Amino acid sequence: MDIGPVIAKRYRIKREIGSGGMGVVWLAHDEHLGRDVALKTMNTPPGLTQDQRARDAERFRREARAAARLDHTGIATVYDLGEENATRFLVMQYVTGIDLEDRIEEQAQLSIEEAASIGVQIASVLGSVHARDVVHRDLKGRNVIIRTDGVVKILDFGVAAFLEPGTARLTATGERPGSLECMAPEQILGKSVDQRTDLYALGCLLHKMLTGDPVFEHHSELMLPGLILDHPPIPLRDLRPDAPEDLETLVLELLAKAPDDRPPHAGEIWRRLAPWLPARGDPATALTPWAEVDPLRPFRHPMGPEARPVRSWARTRRLGTPG
């Protein structure tokens, strides 16, 4: 059955799975290798000048280069980049799971262990990214996917910034790449960014995981920049009394207005979150089939057998396949 157009004589579009300012993400099937992939096509809004079109095209190519040069379990793999009928496309690993924003909405507040488990994995990805002179610049809940086995993946390097000398500046005056909820003060002001910009965003995510609410919110988004620039965040334990004092201190340091007042690198965040990771579990429980997302699993059962949903487990048992 023909379920959609085929791009590059290879990728058959199934359905739209997301969209944003830079483009649309589709679930597609790679007919050469027989696997599903995520295919992102670039938006070209009407009315752009030639310079704006060239800048957007370069930003799209940069996403592919930024992601392709990174090698980490927590980053979706880039498979292909191309253009067809004047439409640029990027093909990446299709990651299934729940995004962090939805996880927080489901749970209202995450446990200390779960927030630490997710935060440590994000810090690990950021450490790898920053070591290669790349800053994400748009870290937010919708860009963090938690697979059912608990592995965290960070998506969308569409506004990633290179820190290498000589890299062309692609952001025009007045543009602020990223999303306001997790945007650092230096981004609001249009100043230079570095790895500490991503660490501010991680502080925003930790705050929201632990309290259920963003650091700053207002019924008018136009008021958010002023709050981010001028208002101190509410201390974590004012909103979550059971939070450890050291964890509150870490979140407040991450949310410092000045980059120099934040922790210097992602490895420091990893170290300071590690005390709240779950203890190693009984190896026998690693074989228990899961039914829902479990961000604690990678720490309770590191390098454990691949988790499978209950239906898959039951089917293999019926067929006589060893569990």
TrEMBL record:
Keywords, comma-separated and alphabetical: ATP-binding, Kinase, Nucleotide-binding, Serine/threonine-protein kinase, Transferase
SUPFAM superfamilies reported in the protein's UniProt record: Protein kinase-like (PK-like)
Keyword Transcription among UniProt keywords: no
Record Pfam families: Pkinase
Protein kinase domain: residues covered: 11-277
Keyword Kinase in annotation: yes
The protein's name in its UniProt record: non-specific serine/threonine protein kinase
Coiled-coil parts of chain: none
InterPro entries: Kinase-like_dom_sf (IPR011009), Prot_kinase_dom (IPR000719), Protein_kinase_ATP_BS (IPR017441), Ser/Thr_kinase_AS (IPR008271)
Enzyme Commission code(s) on record: 2.7.11.1
